[in-house]
Write a structure and sequence with these properties.
The chain has about 425 residues and is of the alpha/beta class. Helices cover about 45% and strands about 15% of the residues.
Length: about 425
């Protein structure tokens, strides 16, 4: 429980040698609580601790109760607290109170949700770095630079006869700030994949071994495998964690001239999956020569991130590797050969050498949108300068950039924005 009445409300439930009003801060006390159950109380022995404001997560008085982990007991304890005068927390309300108390900025608060929901190691690491303030520090550096530019330009408004560019190098300073903004925004695509996962479409001609490759990657028989071509008629999806990244693999129908209406629908779904994927895994049959169907698979992956796999390395090889633009990975879904190398290449082709240790990474579409807005405003300021427009217009552009950057960390957060952000949190986090 968090709030000024937490200890008073808890005292109505507590049965122990020491009354909650006499609890020493941050010291655990053993006692019991009586929880009503259809008129017959259930008694549970619990541990409780009082943590006084302001040195708590929320900045308020907090009481934490540790009871036995039975779901019915937990539910009854919550009901008892509500009956004693508390109310259930809303989504993310503890973190929202921490933000309002100045314990963290808005970017850090959003990282709490990302850390809780992270499925891969890299996503969790980025969220933890953001929670510690890595992204906020870089945003503030750019915001402070923009504020300095604003100050220079707005000061010049009072002295209209003086030059604001020329020797002062204002245009160069704005350009440097714009580059910093763009560099951070550029990390978004990799950041999104590290947080949300990488969608990988497995494409290729019928019987190239696409389903067998999927099964070997995920470690079990997820997709039906048969020697007859056209076995896969729909997109089959399965997830796997590789090198700290979560991958969603989409096994697609073999690309060829359809033998019927059902297969034709499956091939159309395959093309849509390839178009929307972050990475295309193009699988070729190493025992057969390069064909028109192989060329069709290459065309669909053109202009996208792609990784080539020459499968069936356990058979005599007839495939023309010269037809490929990049070095493929040779695998055998039957023996497992090459799949260690494939795992390394998957992570590399998806995000390259991107790593949280290399600097702040943007994972939120909200942050990316605001960085883009700041960038456009800075570009506008440069254009106003180049065209010798009134200095007030330059100041207006810089003000817009500064406000966009401040919205990332929440300096100018509205109730509507906070409601939208914290509605994504789990109850009470």
């Amino acid at each position: 429980m968090s709030g000024p009445s937490s200890r008073e409300i808890f005292a109505r439930l507590w049965r122990g040698r020491v009354h909650p009003s006499g609890f020493e801060p941050r010291k655990l006390y053993l006692g019991r609580v009586d929880l009503a159950d259809h008129g017959s109380p259930i008694t549970d022995h619990v541990m409780a601790v009082h943590m006084p404001a302001p040195n708590t997560y929320t900045g308020e008085d907090v009481v934490e109760i540790s009871c036995h982990g039975s779901q019915p007991l937990l539910a009854k304890l919550v009901d008892a607290c509500v009956a004693a005068g508390a109310r259930t927390a809303g989504p993310g309300e503890f973190t929202r109170r921490a933000f309002l108390a100045g314990k963290m900025d808005l970017a850090q608060a959003e990282a709490v949700c990302d850390l809780i929901s992270a499925e891969g190691e890299r996503g969790a690491r980025i969220a933890a770095e953001q929670l510690q303030g890595r992204l906020s520090r870089e945003i503030r550096l750019i915001a402070d630079a923009t504020a300095g530019l604003r100050a220079r330009v707005e000061a010049a408004i009072d002295f209209p006869d003086e030059e604001i560019d020329g020797e002062t190098g204002l245009a160069e300073a704005i350009t440097n700030t714009l580059k910093s903004c763009a560099r951070l925004a550029f990390t978004f695509e990799n950041g999104r994949m590290m947080r949300d996962g990488v969608r990988v479409a497995i494409a290729g001609r019928p019987n190239a071994g696409k389903s067998s490759v999927l099964n070997r990657i995920v470690g079990f028989d997820r997709a039906l495998v048969h020697h007859a071509p056209g076995t896969t008629r729909d997109v089959v999806e399965e997830r796997a964690s590789i090198d700290g990244l979560v991958f969603s693999f989409l096994d697609t129908a073999g690309l060829r001239t359809a033998a019927g209406e059902v297969e034709s629908l499956g091939i159309e779904k395959s093309k849509a999956a390839i178009a929307s994927a972050d990475l295309t895994l193009v699988v070729f049959d190493g025992s057969r020569r390069f064909s028109g169907e192989d060329r069709e698979a290459l065309k669909l992956a053109l202009g996208k991130k792609a990784l080539y796999v020459v499968n069936k390395s356990d058979l005599p090889q007839n495939f023309d590797i010269e037809e490929l633009e990049a070095e493929p990975v040779r695998t055998s879904a039957l023996t497992g050969d090459g799949f260690g190398e494939l795992a390394k290449r998957l992570a590399w082709e998806a995000i390259g050498a991107a790593s949280p240790s290399g600097g702040a990474v943007v994972v939120s579409a909200r942050h990316k949108s605001l960085l883009d807005a700041a960038g456009r405003a800075l570009e506008g300021a440069l254009a106003e300068l180049a065209e010798r427009r009134p200095v007030e217009l330059v100041a207006q552009r810089l003000r817009a950039a500064h406000e966009a950057l401040n919205e990332i960390t929440g300096e100018a957060a509205t109730e509507e924005l906070l409601d939208r952000i914290f509605s994504k949190f789990c109850i009470g986090k």
